[in-house]
Design brief:
84 residues, alpha+beta, Mth169, Chain: A, three-stranded antiparallel β-sheet, 2 helices, 31% strand, elongated, purine biosynthesis, PurS-like_sf
Length: 84
């Protein structure tokens, strides 16, 4: 079994109105040191081994469903998980 952590973020060229709103709120709450905020998604997947590599499976999932490759980038971490 593999534990996969997937991080999805908007591409740098895409405007992030939610991130801008959070930044403005933090600044107004007396956190002027916050210069930028980008909002993204995080998910954990537990994946059973198959004939395909885990990397290949995760990339396919991200391209087909989890991320919008036109406006989002993704990274992931794969950990081998011990099952009890």
């Amino acid at each position: 079994m593999y534990k996969v952590k997937v991080y999805i973020t908007l591409r740098e060229s895409v405007l992030d109105p939610q991130g801008k709103a959070v930044k403005q709120s933090l600044n107004s709450m007396n956190f002027p040191e916050v210069e930028d905020v980008r909002i993204g998604k995080y998910m954990e997947l537990m994946i059973a081994p198959t004939d395909k590599s885990v990397e290949e499976t995760v990339k396919e999932m991200c391209h087909r469903l989890l991320a919008n490759p036109v406006i989002e980038d993704y990274t992931y971490e794969i950990e081998e998980s011990v099952t009890k």
